[in-house]
Amino acid sequence: MTSEPRTPEPGARAYETVLESIEEQLRSGMLQLGDRLPGERALAETHGISRASVRDAIRILDVLGVVKTATGSGPGSGAVVVSNPAAGLAAALRMHVATRRLPVDDIVESRVLLETWAARSARLDQHDAAVREKLTRAGELLDAMEDPDLEREGFHALDARFHVLLSSLAGNAVIEAMMESLRLSISGYVGESVQGPAEWTAMVGVLRTQHRGIHAALLAGDGNGAAELLREHIHWFHDDSSGR
To answer: Which residue intervals define the domain HTH gntR-type in the entry (predicted)?
Structure first.
């Protein structure tokens, strides 16, 4: 599992040679999901760069959700190829939302576009075992959200899983990853904007009712109806939590 050694181009950062090499190997199939990357020393020698530069490259791949790293010296250490595109997208979006270059309102509108498209494009054939299984799981998430002892953070986590699961009904992996990244990018901002327990108690009852309505529409095969309910739900939650 080796490729032709690369040397840094003039003006390029040393770690970029490792990133380009890993990308090339993934595209060619030389590296696949579950494969372990060579060690720091081997990568440094292959590309003629320092181990510090190799570590920079691995950190970037980790943040992007391309590899998962584990410290130590045993068989479980090192970097293993994974695929978690939402993690990388969410990390980048969160930083840019923090700079206010990407307004939260625009993230919310992007969510509306993606979620309503996914609902309208959902494969709602009840004879499809995969669709039935996803809708059943969505219902189980709603049941879990009914727990009166559930903390706010736990509710938000279940809520995120519910929405991402619904977006997967369209069968588009890119939309699903983008949906998850958009939700993750603003989850902290939205959670912090709900002021106190009284406000949250009032809000959570409405959220449960809205979720049930969306789920019922999908169970009935009404993707267009579910899309409109999703639009109203997302806008209501964002407007109410931001004090509008």
So the answer is: 12-84
SS3 for 29-67, per residue? CCCCCCCECCCHHHHHHHHCCCHHHHHHHHHHHHHCCCE
What is the structure's pLDDT at 244?
A: 53
Residue whose structure tokens are 């206010």: 100
Extract long-range pairs of 153-157: CB within 8 Å, 24+ residues apart: 153/191, 155/204, 155/207, 156/187, 156/190, 156/191
> Which CATH architecture is the domain 15-83 placed in?
Orthogonal Bundle (1.10)
CATH 1.20.120.530 fits 86-241, yes or no: yes
Instruction: Label the pairing between strands 78-81 and 67-70.
Output: antiparallel
Note the pLDDT tens digit of each residue in 47-96. Answer: 999 999 999 999 999 998 899 988 765 566 789 999 888 888 888 888 88
Question: Which tens digits make up the pLDDT trace of 13-32?
Answer: 889 999 999 999 999 999 99
DSSP string of 202-214, one letter each residue = HHHHHHHHHHHHH
The CA radius of gyration of the chain, in Å to the nearest whole number, is 22
